[in-house]
């Protein structure tokens, strides 16, 4: 049953997550849905007082944040190996020449999220191209 859930529901839920700019609230909502589904599949009721970590261990899976991080790092590694003329790579390395920032402050960009995630994985953002060049370790 878990394999069916992973193959259908989870892949549909996280489709395109490699390119999302994720906020903490969005990650929490995705994780709530994921754990709710796992509780129903495993037949665990809230009265059983089973922690989320135990539910993930019982089901043999990880939280959505791990899926998101894995997808983002895989996508960045893919971009690093692209030739220079590809539009995806040009957009990734590009900067806007002009524009306005919203009054409420700057919106979080994909690069900001990536930088935070790289630091969590103990990868130096400055040496990203060197780290991604070795496909087996990346």
List the helices and strands and how they pair.
Elements: H1 2-13, H2 24-42, H3 52-59, H4 64-80, H5 87-93, H6 110-120, H7 128-133
Helix pairs in contact: 2-3
Task: Describe what you observe in this structure.
With 138 residues, the chain is mainly α. It has a domain at 2-62. It is built from 7 helices and no strands. Helix 2 crosses helix 3 (52-59). The longest helix has 19 residues, at 24-42. The protein is globular and about 55 Å long.
What assembly state would you assign to the polypeptide chains in this entry? single chain
**Straight-line N-to-C gap:** 31 Å
Structural class: mainly alpha
Order of helices and strands: HHHHHHH
Main beta sheet strand tally, sense and closure: none
What is the radius of gyration computed over CA atoms, rounded to a whole number of angstroms?
Answer: 18 Å
Mean pLDDT: 86
Low-confidence stretches: none
**Could you estimate the helical fraction of the residues in percent?**
55-70%
Strand content: under 5%
**What's the helix count?**
7
The tally of beta strands, per DSSP, is: 0
Features:
7 helices, mainly alpha, 138 residues, 0% strand
Précis, in short:
This protein is mostly helical and 138 residues long.
